[in-house]
Amino acid sequence: MNATADRLRLILGDQLNASHSWFQHTDPQTIYVIAEMQQETAYVKHHVQKVCAFFAAMTQFATALESAGHRVMHLTLDDTKPFERIDDLLNHLIAEHHITHFEYQLPDEYRLRSTLERYCLSLSISSQVYESEHFFLSETQIEKEFKPNHHHRMEPFYRKMRKRFNILMEEGEPVAGKWNFDSANQNKLKPSEFDSVPTPLLFANDVTDILKRLERHNVSMIGQANNQLLWPVNRQQANELLVFFCRYCLPLFGKFQDAMTCKLDDMLTQKEWSLFHSRLSFALNAKILSPMKVIDAAITEFNQRQDAIDIAQIEGFVRQILGWREFVRGIYWRNMPDYQNLNKLEASRSLPSWFWTGKTKMNCMHHAIQQSLDFAYAHHIQRLMTTGNFCLLTGIKPDEVDEWYLGIYIDAIEWVEMPNTRGMSQFADGGIVASKAYAASGNYVNKMSDYCSDCHYNVKQITEPKACPLNALYWHFMHTHIEQFNNNPRTRMVYANWNKKSEEQQQVILDKAKLLLLEIEGL
């Protein structure tokens, strides 16, 4: 590589979009820098598979750009060790290569966006910022669609997006005459249906060198490490996984997208963690795949195989990407930085230590956490209605919940994690994201899974010694926050049932919950 260049372009680890306009033409006077930074491994304690996946994907992307004729500087932790911050590295590269112009794409975390904005103000050379060219909505469109500190609802936003981008529409109306088939997406997976679950497509990316590098630099991480990384780390693999999902998972995706099970695996196969889910979220959030490409592929499969894929399956999938994914991004950017400090329910309890080990007698929590530690993945209901519900009911500090979710999941980047966690899951935003707190007793877990049948606790009991902790904790939560939720039409029936209990019955339940909270480390 020549010593000098006119322009330096920074590519972050979640900006691996080969279709970006930057790459339409090669320019020998432009250097692209892709850098592993210690600061990005340390702002929370990440899952080892998450760090390996990002570092491996960055390596693959750098190689692809070089093959396409671009000048690329791929720097590992070994190369960037002398530089504590990204600013220090950039200053060094600008001086070393006599750069006269600096460019970057808008980061999708407020922390990094603020850092680079301040950095550019300090430069004596010119700079320019670009959009990532990945999402459906531009930054300007987000400002028009979302208001700060405003109670937004996903359903009308989702319908507007369907119309705007003409997705699953016929002559201005939704395909099949209905916008949302969520009611058909809430089925429990029965033993008779186990054989329909496909064995997941896994990759075997060698990350031995990355693991050694992480150990060499004393990077503190969580989770199960393996020299062979199962996640897709380049476009070819991501496209293979997309094809696999459309062919083998989409036909039953919607029907079982909320289901959970612990009775499916055997000595030869592990399918409980994947079920019918696409597992494309890492490839999407790293921008290896575009959301439009994913939706187009799924709809094409639906159109070609309507005998095997009904509307409820494809609509449920489209809703997650076109609706929810774009919705939470809008919420994040229109409410930061204040959003990260919201704690409307004044939750103040510390996260139990067993969130880092999975060692709990609650079978639902054990499986959701252990799966997360093993695979850096759990599907949305495990996150929202299992681990998230427990944190909500027990009043865990939102900062600690955010940190756990942001660290443990391979697809967790703050723009998508925080509104899902602090908003949808913990109601810490007071209803900016959700119209109610998603609190549930053990009955919900029993309805959507087979966890309860093998549990130490009895899901049918409330106050007995081995009663499911979620039951008393649920009533305690609803009682504690009666002022916030009593007038909400969606919880009116809950309080009507609570009020049917005598004061003595209520007190026994509340006392049981208080004991559980005192003994939270031993649950």
From TrEMBL:
Protein name: Cryptochrome/photolyase family protein
Gene3D superfamilies, sorted: 1.25.40.80, Deoxyribodipyrimidine photolyase-related (1.10.10.1710), DNA Cyclobutane Dipyrimidine Photolyase, subunit A, domain 3 (1.10.579.10), HUPs (3.40.50.620)
Entry's transmembrane regions: none
InterPro entries: Crypto/Photolyase_FAD-like_sf, PhrB-like, Rossmann-like_a/b/a_fold, UV-DNA_repair_photolyase
One of the Pfam families matching this protein, by short name: DPRP
